[in-house]
Amino acid sequence: MHNKSNSLIELEIPDAQVYYDEGFFAFAKAKQLFTTLQEQTPWRQNKITVFGKTYDEPRLTQLYGDDQMEYSYSGITFKALEWSPLLQSIKEDVEAATGHQFNICLVNLYRTGADSNGWHADNEPELGKNPVIASVSLGQERFFHLRHSENKEWRYKFPLKNGSLLLMAGATQHTYKHQIAKTKRDIRPRINLTFRKVVDASV
Ligand SMILES: O=C(O)CCC(=O)C(=O)O
Ligand SMILES: [Fe+2]
Fold first, then answer.
1. Atom of ligand 1 nearest to the CA of 178
2. What InterPro entries does UniProt report for this protein, alphabetically (predicted)?
């Protein structure tokens, strides 16, 4: 990794490249970003089809990116909205901290503990061979789970703090799956921004 930040530290996860900065945005700044994004984002409720049945995706989302770029996952195709000045500035902060450039950002809103993001890897072909994904967390702390695809003993779980930055790189999207699990705890909403780089929009 081209690490320009002193605060991103590599986590000890075998067969993966995962970096974390717990205090990427200070608490007050993170709080302000959360409030503005919650109010200003035109949230979408997508439908997902699993084994022929259609459900509401268990969170709200939106996609921002360069030049009306398109991005698909789980059969959902988005056309990216133009970067808002706020997201553009967050993107620049994330690029400066990671040394990577990004051209799309998927925004997730987890309204309650019933909202979640099931086990998956972000390995869509348009993200290239080894996708680099930078993930900013705002608001309610939620647990991030990682599990290795082959070695069942390699399972990790840690809280993503308000204002934190997580970076996944190298083979991580091939070797591990990740999730945000549901919880029965009565909790507040969380916003997550995942910055990605589409390398070939025609794939
Ligand atoms: O909410 C998170 O921290 C993870 C989001 C995620 O994995 C995704 O959008 O692909
Ligand atoms: Fe993901």
1. 7
2. AlkB-like (IPR027450), AlkB-like_sf (IPR037151), ALKBH3 (IPR032854), Oxoglu/Fe-dep_dioxygenase_dom (IPR005123)
Residue 186 resides in a domain: yes
| pTM for this predicted structure | 0.94
Q: Is residue 203 part of a domain?
A: no
Q: Relative to the alpha carbon of 63, which ligand is closest?
A: 1
| Ligand 1 contact, 144 CB (< 6 A) | yes
- φ, ψ for residue 88 (rounded to 5)? -60, -40
Any atom of ligand 1 within 6 Å of the Cβ of 161: no
Q: Is residue 4 situated within a structural domain?
A: no
- Tell me how far the alpha carbon of residue 38 is from its chain's centroid: 16
How many folded domains does the chain comprise? 1
Looking at beta carbons, which pairs linking 6-9 to residues 24 or more positions away fall under 8 Å?
7/97, 8/97, 8/98, 8/165, 8/167
Selection from 105, 125, 111, 94 nearest residue 8 by Cα: 94
Residue 34 in any domain: the answer is yes
Atom from ligand 1 closest to the CA of residue 137: 3
Give the tens place of pLDDT for each residue, 40-93: 999 999 998 888 899 999 999 999 999 888 888 777 888 999 999 999 999 999
